[in-house]
Input
Amino acid sequence: MTHDVWTAMDDRKMEFGGGAPVESETPYRHWKRRRDDNDVEWIILDKADSRVNVLSAEVLMELLNLLEEVADARPRGLVLRSGKPKGFTVGADVSEFKGMTSLAEVENKVRRAHAVADMLDKFPAVTAAVIHGMCLGGGLELSLCCDHRIALPDAALGFPEVKLGLHPGMGGTFRSVRLIDPVDAMTMMLTGKNKTARQALKSGLVDAVVEERHVAAAVRAALSDELKNKRRGMKGAAMNTGPMRRMAANKMRTKTREKADPDHYPAPYALIDLWEAHGGDPKAMQKAEIASFSNLLIGDTAQNLVRLFFLRDKMKGLGYGDPAILHVHVIGAGAMGGDIAAWCAYKGFQTTLFDVDLNALGGAVARAASLFGKKCDTDAEARDALDRLIPDPTGDGVPRADLVIEAVPENHDLKVKIYGETEPRMKAGAILATNTSSIRLETLRESLRRPDRFVGLHFFNPVAKMHLVEVVDHDGAAEDALAAARAFVVAIDRLPAPVRSAPGFLVNRALMPYLLEALLMMDEGIAPETIDRAAEDFGMPMGPIILADKVGLGICVDVAGVLRDSLDEPIPDIPDWVNQKVEDGHLGEKSEKGLYVYEDGKPKKNPEAPDPDPETADRLILPMVNACVRLLREGVTDDPEIVDGAMVFGTGFAPFRGGPVQYAQKRGVAEVRETLSRLADRHGERFQPDEGWDRLEGGS
Ligand code: NAD
Output
């Protein structure tokens, strides 16, 4: 049965000019066309077999043919619209970017896309794009080829390419700076931030914002040229001069450098160069855009970021389906439990929160209110979220909950006692989850009646920022309970990493050698600033010393202790002076004293600290990579992609390097192994390369 976009659009009351279709069927898989009563041609993008429109090579080729055909029919005007309820288009088909290595091949592909855009730009009649929902990347670039853009109030327009290590590559660089204030256009491309319909109207990116019922009238006005948004004014014209652009470009470079290292993320800098050199000359800028985009696309940064884009999808796919969870009950309203409950309520779940300490409950609700205030678009939404979060000092939520999450202090006996009191009150089939970060689930489930309904849901701190949740298995867990737990993680907009119960699970186990090595370096007299800089230069979001202070030295020492007691591998002792700091209550950022001293929440750093030597980064990073290889060998997960995803989304491991396993493979497994052996000779057995490297060697 063919999908009838016209009926679907009628059902959704979408405007397309009225009149009978000239052709109900076209030879195209992804496009539909219809001529309205005013002799205006409406072409509708409705990508086959896809919930959203993406601009694959096939979609663009069809558009080229369609435009030629429509031009021959000499319409009075042309309207471009989407047939998908979700929106206009989300941009390029990113899967076509994967694994591209040949510059010539990429340039050819990009040139073909430009030919389509140019054809729309030069179409021999007035053109308009009608935009609803997401209009991103290539979608926005196509709309920029039209003479007019009419947005619906729900439209969101943006250039997200920079998040994939790219800049616009289908004419967006020169068409955007030509249309609106170039600094505004450059900011959109450099930050990847979307504009709402209203913001787009204000900046001149669209000519009008109308409700659906006024679309046909707006199109008529546009095609008769009554609709013109002339917001660009003098500033845009001034920016066409070289010296003004040079000044503005330098400012942009300085600002960009605060966020991204040019060696790690070259795209924004390439875009600034492009505009500085050619901003006044669209033809030259188009030529340079093709070269620059192609060059970026075959580079390591873009390829790794594209890979992570799909890894995110893959992890979401692990939580496919309905978790059948409506009510969540959280036990423990401390740093983690309080924030987990708040996040669940924010994401639409009825949530009860229990704690023996009423102050903890009060504190958690106050933190939740502040979170909702920041995250929710309207006061009404924030109020609704707060209504869903119910402080429950008597634990009445337990029998009603489909999922109970325990987040009390990291103490085996306390947790087991709470399970003994809670499990008999839970409804049949409900899931009991623990947020433990280091206790083996096998030892926690021993006295449970239904160990098959028991799983680990290991959230990371701060819950509202960290996207990863480890979903922890154990030898007695039922697959449907684990599947529901994974689906729940996705339902609260987090990424599940399925892991086997093992000391430290995945992320903490891999992170610990990195933090410990940093402490040993400090013990050797290396300045904390030098150590942190080595990690930051590698691309970590923060150095290990500052991270240890953020996590809290007490927690670091505890987790290291648990790992040392339960693992059969050489884990060095924590230096005495660190233990002393913990005893003295100098736990890190929160107590204003830790490895750094803090003033107004900021660490006091010595600007004179020497630069790190080349070995420092290897000493920090390679033990973490070695631990990842060991985890894989031991089967904590058997998927290297999950290791990479967990480390990037759970710790911020340099995203442009694609994750620790990808990094090792790119650098060369043999070389990494040799370096580890050299470090082992020099610094100790803890660097000994794991046997698991054998399996990676030669792998891709
Ligand atoms: P926390 O000390 O901040 O909070 C624990 C809360 O549990 C307190 O409010 C306390 O009053 C409450 N509590 C104690 N006994 C209770 C009982 N019998 N019934 C109900 N509530 C009780 O601890 P946290 O940092 O939130 O850690 C909680 C769990 O999460 C631990 O297992 C920890 O390992 C894990 N975890 C912590 C972090 C982190 O960074 N803090 C990260 C991941 C996982």
